[in-house]
């Protein structure tokens, strides 16, 4: 997962769900995307391990304005948001669990 600090912030209204208290794992998926299923499992598992972290999955086809604005070019794309909804990390493709946990370290401030 690489660092992404372009000043973009996302709120509950934009992603259709509440942000996590400490961080949010935001996943862009599409209907026939095999890696999206594995990514969903990985992110849900990590969110379950770390208190205050939410996993939110968005269907890219239903949110084309957001996809364009955030330059999501493929699914799955995962954005790691801090408590304020700022994008701190992003990855295209299926992330490894260790990378997700590491990226959360940049987002979670105790």
Descriptive overview:
This protein is an alpha+beta fold. Helix content is about 35%, strand content about 25%. It is built from four helices and five strands; from the N terminus they run E-H-E-H-E-H-E-E-H. It has a five-stranded mixed sheet with strand order 1-5-4-2-3, covered by helices on one side. The longest helix is centred in the middle third of the chain and has 16 residues, at about 35-50. It is globular, with a radius of gyration of 12 Å. The model has no long low-confidence stretch (mean pLDDT about 90).
Summarize the helices and strands and which ones pair or pack:
Elements: E1 2-3, H1 12-15, E2 23-29, H2 34-49, E3 53-59, H3 64-69, E4 77-82, E5 87-92, H4 97-107
- Described by the principal axes of the CA atoms, the overall outline is globular
- How many helical elements? 4
Q: How many beta-strand elements?
A: 5
**Oligomer designation:** single chain
The major sheet is characterized as: 5 strands, mixed
Q: What's the pLDDT, averaged over the residues?
A: 92
| Residues in helix, % | 25-40%
Summarize the structure in short.
The chain is α+β, with helices and mostly antiparallel strands.
């Amino acid at each position: 997962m690489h660092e992404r600090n372009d000043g973009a912030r996302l709120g509950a209204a934009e992603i259709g769900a509440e942000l996590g208290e400490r961080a949010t794992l935001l996943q862009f998926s599409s209907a026939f995307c095999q890696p999206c299923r594995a990514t969903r499992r990985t992110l849900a598992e990590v969110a379950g391990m770390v208190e205050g972290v939410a996993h939110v999955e968005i269907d890219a086809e239903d949110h084309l304005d957001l996809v364009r604005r955030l330059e999501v070019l493929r699914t799955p794309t995962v954005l790691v948001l801090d408590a304020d909804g700022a994008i701190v990390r992003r990855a295209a493709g299926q992330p490894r669990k260790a990378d997700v946990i590491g990226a959360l370290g940049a987002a979670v401030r105790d």
